[in-house]
DNA sequence: TCCTGGCACTCTGTGCGTGCGAGTGCCAGC
DNA sequence: GCTGGCACTCGCACGCACAGAGTGCCAGGA
């Protein structure tokens, strides 16, 4: 087990490295932090920390930089979450309060998060699977063509065209609309298949084909084509780490374009509480030199989606975690109100 | 006026520079293109081209690179549009044909364009102003709360919440829905305000306030809040120009994040035909070292939105223009079918 | 009049050697 | 177990010379 002072040394190294972006040596460390010991002592501690794999030197006789393992220890044991200041909180709230619809909420959240953390922000749209149905609308566009509009409790709207096997009258349509809504409105998506199972039986034989088609499209929308969308922003912040360019930035941009990768990434994060994935802890290779801080957010107690930021492993973890947590909290409130 | 051969020299310089990304000298030019003259002659021509401002040397006694003016001449007079090959056309069509809804069409288009041109692709959603109304749906979510759903001919769906000044019965709602659709369905957005002007008069006094509120929300959606959305992709391609990094890439990423900037950019492009903006021709400073190739696309003869790519001034103009044109054409077809 | 070969000149990029400074590891002493 | 001291190791910036590519100009030839 590491002594208390060695942990302090590690903390100091992480803080200095995050601040200066340069390997930090024993002398600089004693000057900037009053550890109460001499550089020589710190050197011994550093050697021990290096043996344990928490720090490393880029070259012999350069300063030390934290390893992924070092950051991990820092995040788990040495750093708290830095709460937002009052003005920051108010700014967040003001900024989010102006949103007019769900798209706008997500867009504003992305911008906000990118600005607060000065990193790349990722916000997942409220997921369909965990949402409930607010309303299902059916519109007759042509005798045998129906538009299905699904509205969720989080304000998300999905629409699909349905080509019916047979012409479908307005009255039948109204009937289906009414029956459908009385069954599924307010219910969770996962329950819908069970709830509508026997619905075709309530209709005349000639309409059953159409009803089935509509229902299967609905189920598709709910489950199969349950595309999880997300929005990203603040990619320009990537250029702030102009050292390792473009070796570092390239794969990150590629990863960000691959929504599948990001969704998987967010999916792997724990369902409750904040998750920090550091460097190689990220399964996707292109993100091996980045850290991902993510947290679930939702309108009620339960998380309906996640948001977070992607930045270099050398990031201000306490500040970033604080910003992510605060934003998630306010977004949850906004969604609950709408 | 420049002689025929000097134009050929300029063309050769542009082509070589685009290919090699390095300043091109007189000797290399004569070796790679059979101009039928000696390097010394080419040198004279180059001196003349430099006097005219079409090319420049980065340093004394380095090769020449085209200036913005040089590219302009190249695009206007020396280069055609390189048509897509048969297999490419089929690939485009196959790729776009799989789209299930408008979002998907746009998303696929962005990916396709980014892959074809290996540059940053920008696709504007079909604009609301130039579209026609397919259907307006009103849903009662609570006694005094209505959801307004607007469906356009291009498949775009917009929804808004309306808080009514007074409770609004189902029958009144159905009445309004019917009247509204009979007036505006199939009409252009720009005509809608005129068409619904006197609609409140047809209702009982107690409902007029609500009807007015709904209508003004509709008009807002159509006009005022006519947010022009767009989707971008292929930003990872920016890293292919790793020279001038990050000085160049930074402002470009920032510009791409500012949808307002991009929309303005596309808006400035000509309404019909393909527009190429080269370097400083772009009003936005951050894009001074990039070129923007854009073209309108639409379901019928008329363009409803634009798409294009953003790349370095040193780009393969004929190829890029060919890809942009082809994609726009196929997207138009897809939209017309749906 | 226009093209060509030749020549001197100008720069940039690169490789090499050197010196400096930051940082380390180790050791003896307190 | 902490400290000061000391020798050592690198990386990096600097200076310098050199090769190579490219140019401009000029005189000669079609």
UniProtKB/TrEMBL annotation, chains A, B:
| BP-aspect Gene Ontology terms | negative regulation of DNA-templated transcription
| Alphabetized InterPro entries for the sequence | GAF-like_dom_sf (IPR029016), HrcA (IPR002571), HrcA_C (IPR021153), WH-like_DNA-bd_sf (IPR036388), WH_DNA-bd_sf (IPR036390), WHTH_transcript_rep_HrcA_IDD (IPR023120)
Q: Which UniProt keywords apply?
A: Repressor, Stress response, Transcription, Transcription regulation
Any single Pfam family the record assigns to this protein: HrcA
Signal sequence annotation: none
Q: What does this protein do?
A: Negative regulator of class I heat shock genes (grpE-dnaK-dnaJ and groELS operons). Prevents heat-shock induction of these operons.
**What protein name applies here?**
Heat-inducible transcription repressor HrcA
Gene name on record? hrcA
């Amino acid at each position: 087990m590491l002594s208390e002072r060695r942990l302090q040394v590690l903390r100091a190294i992480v803080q200095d490295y995050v601040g200066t972006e340069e390997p930090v040596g024993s002398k600089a460390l004693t000057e900037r932090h009053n550890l109460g010991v001499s550089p020589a002592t710190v050197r011994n501690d550093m050697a021990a920390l290096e043996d344990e794999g928490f720090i490393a030197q880029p070259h012999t006789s350069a300063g030390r930089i934290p390893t992924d393992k070092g950051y991990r220890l820092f995040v788990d044991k040495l750093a708290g979450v830095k709460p937002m200041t009052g003005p920051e909180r108010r700014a967040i709230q003001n900024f989010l309060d102006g949103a007019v619809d769900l798209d706008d909420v997500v867009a504003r959240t992305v911008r906000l998060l990118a600005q607060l953390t000065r990193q790349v922000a990722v916000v997942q749209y409220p997921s369909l699977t965990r949402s409930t149905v607010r309303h299902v609308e059916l519109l007759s566009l042509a005798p045998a063509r129906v538009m299905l509009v699904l509205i969720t409790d989080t304000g998300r709207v999905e629409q699909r065209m349905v080509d019916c096997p047979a012409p479908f009258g307005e009255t039948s349509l109204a009937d289906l609309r009414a029956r459908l809504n009385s069954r599924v409105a307010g219910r969770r998506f996962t329950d819908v298949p069970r709830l509508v199972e026997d619905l075709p039986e309530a209709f005349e034989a000639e309409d059953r084909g159409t009803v089935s088609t509509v229902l299967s499209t609905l189920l598709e929308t709910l489950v199969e084509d349950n595309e999880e969308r997300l929005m990203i922003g603040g990619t320009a912040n990537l250029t702030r780490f102009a050292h390792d360019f473009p070796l570092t930035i390239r794969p990150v941009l590629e990863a960000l374009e691959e929504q599948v990768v990001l969704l998987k990434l967010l999916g792997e994060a724990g369902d409750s509480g904040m998750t920090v994935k550091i460097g190689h802890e990220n399964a996707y290779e292109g993100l091996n030199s980045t850290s991902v801080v993510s947290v679930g957010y939702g309108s009620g107690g339960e998380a309906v989606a996640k948001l977070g930021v992607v930045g270099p492993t050398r990031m201000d973890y306490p500040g970033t975690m604080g910003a992510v947590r605060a934003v998630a909290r306010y977004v949850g409130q906004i969604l609950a109100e709408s």
